[in-house]
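Predicting holo structure, NAP bound.
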Amino acid sequence: MSEKRIEDVVIIGSGPAGWTAAIYAARARLDPLVYEGAPSREMIPGGQLMFTTEVENYPGFAEGIDGQKLMMEMKAQARRFDTRIVTDDIVEIDTASRPFRLRSTEGDEIHARAVIVATGARANWLGLHNEERLAQSGGGVSACAVCDGALPAFRDQVLAVVGGGDSAMEEATYLTKFASEVVIIHRRDSFRASPIMAERALQNPKIRVEWDSEVIDVLGDDFITGLRLRNNRTGEEREIEAGGLFLAIGHTPNTSFLEGVVDLDENGYIIPAKPGRVVTNVEGIFGAGDVMDDYYRQAVTAAGTGCMAALEAERWLAHHADADPAPETPAQPVTTG
Ligand code: NAP
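Done. C-alpha coordinates:
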Protein backbone atom coordinates (compact mmCIF):
# COMPACT_ATOMS: atom_id res chain seq x y z
CA MET A 1 0.00 0.00 0.00
CA SER A 2 1.19 3.52 -0.73
CA GLU A 3 2.42 5.51 2.25
CA LYS A 4 0.99 8.67 0.74
CA ARG A 5 -2.72 7.96 0.64
CA ILE A 6 -4.63 9.74 3.39
CA GLU A 7 -7.82 7.98 4.41
CA ASP A 8 -10.74 9.99 5.68
CA VAL A 9 -11.78 7.28 8.08
CA VAL A 10 -10.30 3.94 9.05
CA ILE A 11 -12.56 1.58 10.97
CA ILE A 12 -10.85 -1.04 13.09
CA GLY A 13 -12.99 -4.08 13.85
CA SER A 14 -15.72 -6.02 12.12
CA GLY A 15 -18.48 -6.77 14.59
CA PRO A 16 -21.89 -5.07 14.47
CA ALA A 17 -20.30 -1.75 15.52
CA GLY A 18 -17.61 -1.82 12.83
CA TRP A 19 -19.92 -2.79 9.96
CA THR A 20 -22.60 -0.32 10.98
CA ALA A 21 -19.99 2.44 11.15
CA ALA A 22 -18.81 1.37 7.69
CA ILE A 23 -22.32 1.42 6.22
CA TYR A 24 -22.95 4.93 7.55
CA ALA A 25 -19.50 6.24 6.61
CA ALA A 26 -19.70 4.76 3.12
CA ARG A 27 -23.14 6.23 2.49
CA ALA A 28 -21.76 9.57 3.67
CA ARG A 29 -19.15 9.27 0.88
CA LEU A 30 -16.22 8.93 3.29
CA ASP A 31 -14.92 5.88 1.41
CA PRO A 32 -14.11 3.99 4.64
CA LEU A 33 -11.33 1.47 4.95
CA VAL A 34 -12.10 -1.37 7.37
CA TYR A 35 -9.39 -3.41 9.04
CA GLU A 36 -11.54 -6.40 9.90
CA GLY A 37 -8.89 -8.25 11.92
CA ALA A 38 -7.00 -11.43 11.21
CA PRO A 39 -8.35 -14.78 12.42
CA SER A 40 -6.73 -15.99 15.64
CA ARG A 41 -7.56 -18.59 18.26
CA GLU A 42 -9.46 -16.07 20.36
CA MET A 43 -11.06 -13.82 17.78
CA ILE A 44 -12.15 -14.02 14.19
CA PRO A 45 -13.39 -11.30 11.85
CA GLY A 46 -17.03 -10.72 12.72
CA GLY A 47 -16.38 -10.77 16.45
CA GLN A 48 -18.27 -12.47 19.20
CA LEU A 49 -21.40 -13.16 17.14
CA MET A 50 -19.34 -15.57 15.06
CA PHE A 51 -19.42 -17.84 18.12
CA THR A 52 -23.19 -17.55 18.58
CA THR A 53 -25.52 -19.98 16.92
CA GLU A 54 -28.96 -18.39 16.99
CA VAL A 55 -29.54 -14.65 17.46
CA GLU A 56 -33.16 -14.12 18.43
CA ASN A 57 -33.03 -10.58 19.81
CA TYR A 58 -31.65 -8.61 16.85
CA PRO A 59 -34.63 -6.66 15.49
CA GLY A 60 -35.72 -7.37 11.95
CA PHE A 61 -35.39 -11.15 12.01
CA ALA A 62 -38.70 -12.49 13.25
CA GLU A 63 -37.50 -16.09 13.12
CA GLY A 64 -34.01 -15.30 14.47
CA ILE A 65 -30.80 -15.46 12.48
CA ASP A 66 -27.57 -17.41 12.75
CA GLY A 67 -24.82 -15.23 14.27
CA GLN A 68 -22.38 -15.87 11.42
CA LYS A 69 -25.07 -15.20 8.83
CA LEU A 70 -25.93 -11.90 10.51
CA MET A 71 -22.33 -10.80 10.34
CA MET A 72 -21.98 -11.87 6.70
CA GLU A 73 -25.07 -9.84 5.86
CA MET A 74 -23.67 -6.77 7.63
CA LYS A 75 -20.37 -7.12 5.80
CA ALA A 76 -22.19 -7.53 2.47
CA GLN A 77 -24.22 -4.42 3.21
CA ALA A 78 -21.05 -2.43 3.92
CA ARG A 79 -19.50 -3.78 0.70
CA ARG A 80 -22.57 -2.79 -1.29
CA PHE A 81 -21.56 0.81 -0.65
CA ASP A 82 -17.95 0.10 -1.71
CA THR A 83 -16.38 -0.22 1.71
CA ARG A 84 -12.80 -1.43 1.32
CA ILE A 85 -11.78 -4.27 3.59
CA VAL A 86 -8.40 -5.55 4.74
CA THR A 87 -8.09 -8.81 6.68
CA ASP A 88 -5.42 -7.70 9.11
CA ASP A 89 -5.09 -6.20 12.60
CA ILE A 90 -4.06 -2.66 13.43
CA VAL A 91 -1.37 -2.90 16.07
CA GLU A 92 -0.36 0.73 16.50
CA ILE A 93 -1.88 4.19 16.26
CA ASP A 94 0.53 7.11 16.32
CA THR A 95 -1.26 10.32 17.27
CA ALA A 96 1.88 12.46 17.47
CA SER A 97 0.99 14.15 14.20
CA ARG A 98 -2.05 14.47 11.95
CA PRO A 99 -3.18 12.63 9.98
CA PHE A 100 -2.76 9.73 12.40
CA ARG A 101 -0.36 6.98 11.40
CA LEU A 102 -1.60 3.43 11.80
CA ARG A 103 0.42 0.25 11.42
CA SER A 104 -0.92 -3.23 10.73
CA THR A 105 0.50 -6.63 11.69
CA GLU A 106 1.65 -7.15 8.13
CA GLY A 107 3.44 -3.81 8.08
CA ASP A 108 0.94 -1.61 6.24
CA GLU A 109 1.27 2.04 7.20
CA ILE A 110 -1.99 3.90 6.86
CA HIS A 111 -2.57 7.61 7.24
CA ALA A 112 -6.02 8.51 8.50
CA ARG A 113 -7.76 11.72 9.44
CA ALA A 114 -10.29 9.92 11.62
CA VAL A 115 -10.31 6.50 13.23
CA ILE A 116 -13.23 4.49 14.59
CA VAL A 117 -12.15 1.80 17.03
CA ALA A 118 -14.66 -1.05 17.10
CA THR A 119 -12.45 -3.93 18.15
CA GLY A 120 -14.91 -5.27 20.71
CA ALA A 121 -14.27 -7.34 23.76
CA ARG A 122 -13.83 -11.03 24.19
CA ALA A 123 -15.58 -13.08 26.82
CA ASN A 124 -13.27 -14.78 29.26
CA TRP A 125 -13.36 -18.56 29.25
CA LEU A 126 -12.14 -21.13 31.71
CA GLY A 127 -9.78 -22.62 29.14
CA LEU A 128 -11.03 -26.23 29.33
CA HIS A 129 -10.83 -28.39 26.22
CA ASN A 130 -14.45 -29.62 26.35
CA GLU A 131 -15.71 -26.15 27.18
CA GLU A 132 -14.18 -24.79 23.97
CA ARG A 133 -15.28 -27.81 21.90
CA LEU A 134 -18.94 -27.57 22.97
CA ALA A 135 -19.01 -23.76 22.76
CA GLN A 136 -17.82 -23.89 19.16
CA SER A 137 -20.18 -26.70 18.12
CA GLY A 138 -23.31 -25.19 19.66
CA GLY A 139 -23.27 -27.89 22.33
CA GLY A 140 -24.88 -25.87 25.11
CA VAL A 141 -21.88 -23.86 26.35
CA SER A 142 -22.13 -20.10 26.05
CA ALA A 143 -20.65 -16.90 27.43
CA CYS A 144 -23.87 -14.94 26.95
CA ALA A 145 -27.06 -15.97 28.72
CA VAL A 146 -29.02 -13.05 27.29
CA CYS A 147 -28.03 -14.14 23.75
CA ASP A 148 -28.56 -17.88 24.09
CA GLY A 149 -30.57 -18.60 27.25
CA ALA A 150 -33.98 -18.53 25.60
CA LEU A 151 -33.11 -21.19 23.03
CA PRO A 152 -35.40 -24.24 23.16
CA ALA A 153 -32.53 -26.60 24.07
CA PHE A 154 -32.25 -24.91 27.49
CA ARG A 155 -35.94 -25.13 28.45
CA ASP A 156 -36.61 -26.96 31.72
CA GLN A 157 -32.98 -27.95 32.13
CA VAL A 158 -30.61 -27.58 35.04
CA LEU A 159 -28.42 -24.68 33.88
CA ALA A 160 -25.06 -23.77 35.39
CA VAL A 161 -23.59 -20.27 35.62
CA VAL A 162 -19.93 -19.77 36.52
CA GLY A 163 -18.90 -16.54 38.27
CA GLY A 164 -19.64 -14.45 41.29
CA GLY A 165 -19.98 -10.93 39.86
CA ASP A 166 -22.98 -8.89 38.77
CA SER A 167 -23.05 -10.62 35.39
CA ALA A 168 -23.34 -14.05 37.01
CA MET A 169 -26.18 -12.82 39.26
CA GLU A 170 -27.97 -11.19 36.37
CA GLU A 171 -27.54 -14.14 34.05
CA ALA A 172 -28.57 -16.67 36.70
CA THR A 173 -31.70 -14.67 37.50
CA TYR A 174 -32.50 -14.33 33.81
CA LEU A 175 -32.06 -18.06 33.21
CA THR A 176 -34.62 -18.95 35.89
CA LYS A 177 -37.27 -17.97 33.32
CA PHE A 178 -36.39 -21.04 31.29
CA ALA A 179 -34.54 -23.48 33.54
CA SER A 180 -35.86 -26.05 35.99
CA GLU A 181 -32.99 -25.02 38.26
CA VAL A 182 -29.98 -22.69 38.02
CA VAL A 183 -26.73 -23.56 39.78
CA ILE A 184 -24.23 -20.76 40.31
CA ILE A 185 -20.71 -22.12 40.62
CA HIS A 186 -18.35 -19.74 42.34
CA ARG A 187 -14.73 -20.28 43.26
CA ARG A 188 -14.93 -18.48 46.62
CA ASP A 189 -17.32 -18.37 49.58
CA SER A 190 -18.70 -14.88 48.90
CA PHE A 191 -19.85 -13.01 45.85
CA ARG A 192 -18.10 -10.05 44.27
CA ALA A 193 -21.50 -8.88 42.99
CA SER A 194 -23.26 -5.84 44.42
CA PRO A 195 -25.32 -6.82 47.48
CA ILE A 196 -28.65 -6.04 45.83
CA MET A 197 -27.95 -8.25 42.81
CA ALA A 198 -26.55 -11.05 44.96
CA GLU A 199 -29.55 -10.89 47.26
CA ARG A 200 -31.98 -11.04 44.37
CA ALA A 201 -30.27 -14.16 43.06
CA LEU A 202 -29.97 -15.85 46.43
CA GLN A 203 -33.63 -15.25 47.21
CA ASN A 204 -34.77 -16.85 43.97
CA PRO A 205 -36.07 -20.33 44.84
CA LYS A 206 -34.82 -21.72 41.53
CA ILE A 207 -31.20 -20.72 42.22
CA ARG A 208 -28.71 -22.63 44.35
CA VAL A 209 -24.99 -22.02 44.76
CA GLU A 210 -22.00 -24.32 44.68
CA TRP A 211 -19.57 -22.28 46.80
CA ASP A 212 -15.79 -22.68 46.75
CA SER A 213 -16.09 -24.69 43.57
CA GLU A 214 -14.39 -24.76 40.20
CA VAL A 215 -15.46 -26.44 37.00
CA ILE A 216 -12.68 -28.79 35.96
CA ASP A 217 -14.45 -30.55 33.06
CA VAL A 218 -17.54 -30.25 30.90
CA LEU A 219 -19.27 -33.57 30.22
CA GLY A 220 -21.22 -34.63 27.12
CA ASP A 221 -20.41 -35.68 23.55
CA ASP A 222 -22.57 -33.53 21.26
CA PHE A 223 -24.39 -31.56 23.96
CA ILE A 224 -23.49 -30.85 27.56
CA THR A 225 -24.90 -33.30 30.11
CA GLY A 226 -23.01 -32.32 33.24
CA LEU A 227 -19.99 -30.79 34.91
CA ARG A 228 -17.13 -32.08 36.96
CA LEU A 229 -16.48 -29.81 39.94
CA ARG A 230 -13.66 -29.55 42.42
CA ASN A 231 -14.14 -28.07 45.85
CA ASN A 232 -11.32 -25.60 46.42
CA ARG A 233 -11.28 -26.12 50.19
CA THR A 234 -11.52 -29.89 50.45
CA GLY A 235 -10.16 -30.93 47.04
CA GLU A 236 -13.19 -33.20 46.64
CA GLU A 237 -14.29 -33.84 43.04
CA ARG A 238 -17.81 -34.73 41.93
CA GLU A 239 -20.15 -34.54 38.98
CA ILE A 240 -23.37 -32.57 38.73
CA GLU A 241 -26.09 -32.61 36.08
CA ALA A 242 -26.19 -29.62 33.70
CA GLY A 243 -28.07 -29.12 30.44
CA GLY A 244 -26.32 -25.82 29.77
CA LEU A 245 -23.25 -23.92 30.92
CA PHE A 246 -22.99 -20.12 30.91
CA LEU A 247 -19.68 -18.43 31.66
CA ALA A 248 -19.92 -15.07 33.41
CA ILE A 249 -16.31 -14.58 34.42
CA GLY A 250 -15.78 -11.20 32.84
CA HIS A 251 -14.75 -9.79 29.47
CA THR A 252 -11.48 -8.40 28.15
CA PRO A 253 -11.68 -5.47 25.74
CA ASN A 254 -9.43 -5.69 22.70
CA THR A 255 -7.54 -2.48 23.44
CA SER A 256 -3.94 -3.46 24.15
CA PHE A 257 -2.87 -1.45 21.07
CA LEU A 258 -4.57 1.65 22.52
CA GLU A 259 -2.58 1.87 25.74
CA GLY A 260 -1.11 5.36 25.93
CA VAL A 261 -3.13 6.42 22.87
CA VAL A 262 -6.58 7.15 24.31
CA ASP A 263 -7.87 7.12 27.88
CA LEU A 264 -8.75 3.61 29.07
CA ASP A 265 -10.32 2.63 32.39
CA GLU A 266 -8.68 0.18 34.78
CA ASN A 267 -10.20 -2.77 32.88
CA GLY A 268 -9.02 -1.51 29.49
CA TYR A 269 -12.31 -0.10 28.19
CA ILE A 270 -12.22 3.21 26.29
CA ILE A 271 -13.49 6.05 28.47
CA PRO A 272 -15.95 8.32 26.61
CA ALA A 273 -14.72 11.90 26.78
CA LYS A 274 -18.29 13.21 26.90
CA PRO A 275 -21.29 11.53 28.55
CA GLY A 276 -23.55 9.75 26.06
CA ARG A 277 -21.12 10.35 23.18
CA VAL A 278 -18.68 7.98 21.48
CA VAL A 279 -15.80 10.46 21.41
CA THR A 280 -12.45 9.69 23.03
CA ASN A 281 -10.06 12.17 24.63
CA VAL A 282 -8.20 12.36 21.29
CA GLU A 283 -10.14 14.39 18.74
CA GLY A 284 -10.70 12.38 15.60
CA ILE A 285 -10.59 8.99 17.34
CA PHE A 286 -13.97 7.50 18.13
CA GLY A 287 -15.06 4.31 19.86
CA ALA A 288 -17.97 2.02 19.05
CA GLY A 289 -19.41 -1.15 20.47
CA ASP A 290 -18.17 -3.30 23.33
CA VAL A 291 -14.75 -1.69 23.34
CA MET A 292 -16.42 1.28 25.02
CA ASP A 293 -19.26 -0.57 26.76
CA ASP A 294 -18.89 -3.03 29.64
CA TYR A 295 -22.52 -2.65 30.57
CA TYR A 296 -24.99 -3.35 27.75
CA ARG A 297 -22.80 -5.49 25.47
CA GLN A 298 -25.53 -6.34 22.95
CA ALA A 299 -25.25 -6.63 19.17
CA VAL A 300 -27.95 -4.04 18.73
CA THR A 301 -26.34 -1.53 21.09
CA ALA A 302 -23.00 -2.08 19.34
CA ALA A 303 -24.64 -1.40 15.98
CA GLY A 304 -26.20 1.75 17.45
CA THR A 305 -22.90 3.11 18.67
CA GLY A 306 -21.30 2.20 15.33
CA CYS A 307 -23.82 4.50 13.70
CA MET A 308 -23.04 7.19 16.30
CA ALA A 309 -19.30 6.92 15.68
CA ALA A 310 -19.73 7.30 11.91
CA LEU A 311 -21.90 10.39 12.41
CA GLU A 312 -19.33 11.80 14.83
CA ALA A 313 -16.51 11.14 12.35
CA GLU A 314 -18.46 12.70 9.49
CA ARG A 315 -19.18 15.85 11.47
CA TRP A 316 -15.66 16.05 12.83
CA LEU A 317 -14.15 15.69 9.35
CA ALA A 318 -16.49 18.32 7.96
CA HIS A 319 -15.07 20.80 10.47
CA HIS A 320 -11.43 19.74 10.41
CA ALA A 321 -10.60 18.39 6.95
CA ASP A 322 -9.28 21.75 5.74
CA ALA A 323 -6.54 21.73 8.34
CA ASP A 324 -5.00 18.51 7.00
CA PRO A 325 -2.53 18.33 4.14
CA ALA A 326 -3.97 17.15 0.85
CA PRO A 327 -3.19 13.63 -0.37
CA GLU A 328 -0.01 13.57 -2.42
CA THR A 329 -0.95 10.66 -4.65
CA PRO A 330 -4.22 9.15 -5.82
CA ALA A 331 -5.77 6.19 -4.04
CA GLN A 332 -4.03 2.84 -4.36
CA PRO A 333 -5.99 -0.41 -4.50
CA VAL A 334 -6.03 -2.51 -1.33
CA THR A 335 -6.60 -6.20 -0.85
CA THR A 336 -10.20 -6.96 -0.13
CA GLY A 337 -11.10 -9.64 2.37
P1 NAP B 1 -16.51 -9.25 37.37
O1 NAP B 1 -17.17 -8.30 38.31
O2 NAP B 1 -15.09 -9.10 37.05
O3 NAP B 1 -16.74 -10.71 37.99
C1 NAP B 1 -16.16 -11.82 37.41
C2 NAP B 1 -16.44 -13.01 38.31
O4 NAP B 1 -15.90 -14.17 37.69
C3 NAP B 1 -15.79 -12.90 39.70
O5 NAP B 1 -16.67 -13.36 40.69
C4 NAP B 1 -14.56 -13.80 39.58
O6 NAP B 1 -14.27 -14.47 40.78
C5 NAP B 1 -15.03 -14.83 38.59
N1 NAP B 1 -13.93 -15.36 37.82
C6 NAP B 1 -13.01 -14.67 37.09
N2 NAP B 1 -12.15 -15.52 36.49
C7 NAP B 1 -12.53 -16.77 36.87
C8 NAP B 1 -12.04 -18.06 36.58
N3 NAP B 1 -10.99 -18.25 35.78
N4 NAP B 1 -12.66 -19.12 37.14
C9 NAP B 1 -13.75 -18.96 37.93
N5 NAP B 1 -14.26 -17.75 38.25
C10 NAP B 1 -13.66 -16.66 37.71
O7 NAP B 1 -17.26 -9.30 35.95
P2 NAP B 1 -18.81 -9.07 35.60
O8 NAP B 1 -19.70 -9.78 36.55
O9 NAP B 1 -18.92 -9.38 34.15
O10 NAP B 1 -19.00 -7.51 35.80
C11 NAP B 1 -18.19 -6.57 35.07
C12 NAP B 1 -18.65 -5.15 35.37
O11 NAP B 1 -19.96 -4.94 34.83
C13 NAP B 1 -18.76 -4.91 36.88
O12 NAP B 1 -18.38 -3.60 37.12
C14 NAP B 1 -20.23 -5.09 37.15
O13 NAP B 1 -20.67 -4.36 38.27
C15 NAP B 1 -20.86 -4.57 35.86
N6 NAP B 1 -22.17 -5.20 35.63
C16 NAP B 1 -23.26 -4.58 36.16
C17 NAP B 1 -24.51 -5.15 36.00
C18 NAP B 1 -25.72 -4.47 36.55
O14 NAP B 1 -25.57 -3.60 37.38
N7 NAP B 1 -26.90 -4.80 36.10
C19 NAP B 1 -24.65 -6.36 35.32
C20 NAP B 1 -23.50 -6.98 34.81
C21 NAP B 1 -22.25 -6.40 34.99
P3 NAP B 1 -13.65 -13.69 42.05
O15 NAP B 1 -14.80 -12.94 42.64
O16 NAP B 1 -13.14 -14.78 42.91
O17 NAP B 1 -12.57 -12.81 41.51
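The CA atoms of residues 156 and 180 lie 4 Å apart.
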